[in-house]
Write a structure and sequence with these properties.
Layout: H1 26-38, H2 41-50, H3 63-75, H4 83-91, H5 95-101, H6 108-128, E1 130-134, E2 137-141, H7 143-153, E3 164-173, H8 197-210, E4 232-236, E5 245-258, E6 261-262, E7 271-272, E8 280-287, H9 292-302, E9 304-305, E10 319-320, E11 323-326, H10 328-331, H11 339-344, E12 348-351, E13 367-370, E14 373-376, H12 395-408, E15 414-416, E16 426-428, E17 437-438, E18 452-453, E19 466-467, H13 486-492, H14 496-508, H15 522-549, H16 551-565, H17 576-595, H18 606-612
Parallel strand pairs: 3-11, 11-12, 17-18
Antiparallel strand pairs: 1-2, 3-5, 4-5, 5-8, 6-7, 9-10, 13-14, 15-16, 16-19
Helix pairs in contact: 1-3, 3-4, 3-15, 4-6, 7-15, 15-18, 17-18
Length: about 625
């Protein structure tokens, strides 16, 4: 037998410390087993065949064991994705727990190598992809499918759902050592979202040409700056962790569930749907600077929302998404592959406008295009150039700006009728639509409460209905929302909820930075990301259920506060004996929960949280 050929000289290393692990609690192990089993027998059998477990002598560590151990690693907040932790989880299992997952006792001196080899085989199998039977057809399984399936398996079936998603991207630096001193941003999206995308692409082409002989290039033609051959140069915006700067690594795009909305055409009125837990239902990891719409649009178009009480699955049954909320980093990119592709799939977009997108367009003599919306040429000059909302605005300034956008909305042209593609429609001016009246001129369709506008004699409101070309409505918002109005501000404001998910993966739950994992390569990082997001969704579910358990007490406190504002007398405070009895009852309940086998985990359950707050 030939010895394994080494690619580099061996390094002197100390022995790996595989001690210090603790047996997982019953609830932790059952959670990990349930998540893996939710992937389905078809996936587990397909993965078993893909890694060759049915060939030759059976191994001691199976693919199912590896998936369960990686999930246990992601269960604890602040954990890191390291093979040592995975091995510790398997070695610390009790005999009864090993029997539960059918894992033989592992020799400590061989456990690390076996876990590493099996994990590597699983990643290669998922990266290559394989097909599994689903119903009467087959489904192609790859790493993106695995990420979606694993993280949505952690979503409880009984919690409410919605068909609206907030989308955003966040950075993930690589741990690879730098191999080039020169580092330049060459991403597809301009670092300044108010810049010209076409001019940026020309500069990127020239930059890559100049770096060709100085920096190694990948198969995508982009420079490679580190030992991590899949990491690329990206630009990240400023936040509480860092300033706006260049980084080398990956970009993680997250789709978070937010409330649905209903809009009936009134700029100051919008109805938000039932509150929902902000689970992460879509995730795509790409090299930093890669095209964003190519990464997220296909995933959003394929996402399926299960019916009430149904199980989440990337290939399951349910309804497609209705709306997507994203920022200028997505809306400035190519329409045909971005918002246009979503529209073709029946999904509308709510987004912010860049400075260039707010530019006036002269298409028809009777129409002024302002902020992506056609307005009447008779609109007052003071309503034509309104300042956008800024983060540093005071509440009074913010309210005044939104009120100006609401007043301007009455001057908009209105679409009517429909076509097969949903784009080429007829439009009529606000006077013909009945929202405005011309003084001393009878108007058949005008509303009696419509404002009266004086026009010079012989000047008509418009030249009749028009049919706008497709490119004229590329900036049309979902459901006809008008940018800057009260309704648009309320709906677009939900995009901040995806920032909460970014905060979970960067600070509150784990630290997704250079030190989170030492694994390099896009495939390996997608693999560990799946377990991380499953843990994050578990945390979101626990927080939601704990909040709902405390809702009754919160509503009582709100009612008492409102009664105080109305000047009503406050109810009498409970006596000392009643308070002692309440504390004693809560202590007994908490003690009973603590002694039960299912509640010896690292996090408190919703009932214990509710009892501790009484």
């Amino acid at each position: 037998m030939n010895a394994k050929r080494l690619m580099h000289p061996p390094r002197l290393r100390g022995a790996r410390d595989l001690t210090g692990g603790r047996p997982p609690t019953t609830s932790e192990l059952e959670w990990a087993i349930q998540i893996v089993d939710n992937l389905g027998s078809g996936f587990l059998n397909g993965l078993t065949d893909a890694v060759g477990e049915n060939l030759g002598r059976p191994g001691s560590v199976l693919a199912r064991h590896v998936l369960i151990a990686w999930l246990l690693t992601a269960y604890e907040p602040t954990a890191t994705a390291a093979h040592v932790r995975v091995v510790q989880n398997l070695l610390s299992l009790t005999p009864a727990q090993r029997e539960q997952i059918r894992l033989p006792e592992l020799p400590a001196n061989r456990a690390y190598a076996r876990v590493w080899d099996k994990t590597d085989a699983v990643i290669k199998a998922l990266d290559a992809g394989f097909e599994i039977p689903v119903g009467s057809g087959v489904v192609r399984v790859d790493l993106d499918w695995f990420v979606d399936a694993l993280m949505t398996s952690a979503i409880p079936e009984h919690l409410p759902t919605s068909r609206t998603r907030a989308v955003d991207g966040t950075d993930w630096e690589t741990c690879g050592q730098f191999v080039a001193a020169t580092r330049e941003y060459d991403g597809e999206t301009p670092a300044d979202t108010d810049g010209d995308v076409e001019e940026h692409h020309k500069k990127v082409v020239a930059l890559r040409r100049s770096l060709k002989d100085r920096v190694p290039l990948g198969l995508d033609g982009r420079p490679i700056y580190t030992k991590d051959c899949d990491a690329r140069a990206g630009h990240r915006s400023a936040n509480n962790r860092h300033s706006a700067s260049l980084y080398i690594g990956y970009e993680l795009h997250l789709g978070v569930q937010v409330r649905d909305f209903g809009y009936q055409g009134k700029p100051n009125e919008v109805v938000l749907g039932t509150d929902v837990p902000n689970f992460i239902t879509m995730a795509r990891l790409t090299p930093a600077g890669a095209d964003r719409v190519d990464a997220v649009v296909p995933a959003l178009a394929k996402e399926v929302v299960p019916a009430a009480g149904g199980r989440w699955a990337p290939d399951g049954q349910g309804d497609a998404l209705a709306s997507v909320i994203w920022d200028r980093g997505y809306s400035i990119l190519d329409y045909s592959r971005g918002a246009g592709a979503l529209r073709a799939a029946g999904i509308t977009a709510v987004f912010d406008l860049s400075t260039r997108q707010r530019t006036l367009k002269a298409i028809y003599r009777d129409i002024d295009f302002i902020d992506g919306t056609p307005f009447s040429k008779h609109m007052p000059p003071e309503l034509r150039s309104l300042p956008r909302l800024e983060s540093h605005d005071t509440p009074q300034e913010r309210e005044a700006k939104i009120a100006a956008f609401d007043r301007r909305a009455i001057w908009r042209w209105t679409p009517f009728g429909s076509t097969s593609d949903g784009l080429r429609r007829r439009w009529q001016c606000p006077f013909c639509a009945g929202r405005l009246r011309i003084a001393d001129r009878p108007t058949r369709r005008a509303n009696v409460s419509a404002p009266v506008v004086e026009l010079p004699d012989g000047v008509a409101c418009c030249a009749g209905t028009v049919t706008l070309p497709d490119d004229a409505v590329h900036l049309e918002q979902a459901s006809g929302l008008l940018w800057g109005t009260s309704a648009h501000t309320a709906v677009y404001g939900q995009r901040s909820l995806v920032e909460n998910a970014n905060n979970l993966v960067h600070d509150k739950y784990v630290h997704l930075d250079r030190g989170y994992t030492k694994l390099m390569g896009l495939a390996k990082r997608k693999f560990v990301l799946a377990f991380l997001l499953a843990g994050v969704n578990r945390k979101i579910a626990e927080s939601w259920e704990a909040r709902e358990a405390a809702r009754g007490g919160h509503e009582n406190r709100v009612a008492a506060y409102q009664a105080q504002l109305r000047g009503e007398p406050s109810p009498a405070a409970p006596s000392a004996a009643a308070l002692r009895q309440r504390r004693s009852r809560a202590a007994r309940r908490a003690k009973a929960d603590a002694t039960s086998p299912a509640s010896r985990g690292r996090t408190r359950t919703a009932p214990r949280l509710a009892a501790s707050r009484q």
